[in-house]
Amino acid sequence: MAIVYPDQFLGLPPCTVEDADAVILPLPFERTASYGTGAWRAPRAILDASCQVETFDEETLVDFEVSPRIHTAPAILDDGDAAVEEYLERVKEAVARLRGKFVLSLGGEHTVTYGLVRGLASNVANLTIVQVDAHADLRDVLDGKRWSHATVMRRLFEEGARLVQVGVRSVSREEYDLVKREKRIACFFAHELKSGWEQLRETLRRLRGDVYLSIDVDGLDPGVLPNTGTPQPDGLSWARVMEITHELSVSRLCRFLAADVVEYVASPHPPGCDIIAAKLVTKILAHRFAKR
Ligand SMILES: [Mn+2]
Fold first, then answer.
1. Which of 132, 155, 174, 196 could be 192's S-S partner, Cβ–Cβ 3.0 to 4.6 Å?
2. Cα–Cα distance measured from residue 31 to residue 213, given in angstroms and rounded to the nearest whole number
3. Within a domain: residue 1?
4. Angle formed by the axes of helices 193-205 and 238-250, nearest 10°
5. Which domain holds residue 116?
6. Does some domain include residue 268?
């Protein structure tokens, strides 16, 4: 590639939203972090690091210099004064205008998924969220807040969404009871995945209707990507996450609408994590737009 465009994903030449197949949407939003902070810096760090990721993918034969065409949208900035719901409303309005494109958003904290799903899905009750996460994010409130990274999936569940949760290994009793009680939630706990992986794949293959993939990077093992606000041991390997993105991409039964990568905390220590996060985003796009 002759010229690198530093503000664009993968350093690609700018592409208008009208001409794009996929949209990268930066959401540098962080209000309710419980422990480690810095998720608001992630979109910028991932965009910067993406300029070091190859624009050709040897697994899918996707050549990003040809197709898909990617529009890197301007970040939706948090003014810091408005209520969390107001930011989520702005996200919802922005993505509602992007329907028909594959939208891949860069968090920011997990809370943003609420605005994304509401904006993308014409009917949340017809949508399944595949959630890779160490946490269930199904609390009703956390620290008195109804809108937070720990309650986001509860709010979407209440609006009718189905949930397939993968790699969960940190839940409250209340969340555990909810997961076991509700038929609309299929939770594959981390300790179950050794023997239950094929069952998960079967569940993914049978999904119908609209599907949204939400990857909280703490779902991955800290050995793959340690930089996240509340890490937990025994997470998913890189290869497992790739299997999930592949299954959703090749399914002929469901429509893989959009995805997000959230809760990454940009930090120079240990070095190189930004590029792993950027590679994760690139691979989701490569699988989704693989030549078949
Ligand atoms: Mn989460």
1. 196
2. 22
3. no
4. 20
5. 9-288
6. yes
Ligand 1 center to residue 157 CA distance, Å? Answer: 14
CA of 134 to the centre of ligand 1 (A): 7
Measured in Å, residue 133 CA sits from the centre of ligand 1 at 5
Question: What tens-digit pLDDT sequence spans the chain (292 residues)?
Answer: 568 998 999 999 999 999 999 999 999 999 988 787 889 999 999 999 999 999 999 999 999 999 999 999 999 999 888 999 999 999 999 999 999 999 999 999 999 999 999 999 989 999 999 999 999 999 999 999 999 999 999 999 999 999 999 999 999 999 999 999 999 999 999 999 999 999 999 999 999 999 999 999 999 999 999 999 999 999 999 999 999 999 999 999 999 999 999 999 998 888 889 999 999 999 999 999 998 7
Q: Which two tokens stand for residue 156?
A: 């979407």
Contact 98, 17 (CB under 8 A): yes
Q: Any idea what the CATH number is for the domain that residue 282 is in?
A: 3.40.800.10
**Cα 292 to ligand 1 centroid, rounded to whole Å:** 32
Answer whether residue 112 is part of any domain: yes
136 alpha carbon to ligand 1 midpoint, in Å?
A: 7
Place of tokens 């990003």: 64
164, with CB counted inside 10 A (0-12, 13-18, 19+), is buried
Alpha carbon of 91 to ligand 1 centroid (Å): 18
Q: Tell me if 4 is assigned to some domain.
A: no
- CA 20 to ligand 1 center in whole angstroms: 29
Strand, coil or helix: 225: coil
Q: How many folded domains does the chain comprise?
A: 1
Beta strands in the chain, from DSSP E residues, in sequence order = 22-27, 70-72, 102-107, 127-132, 162-168, 185-189, 209-216, 254-262
Rounded to the nearest whole angstrom, what is the distance from the C-alpha of residue 222 to the centroid of ligand 1? 15
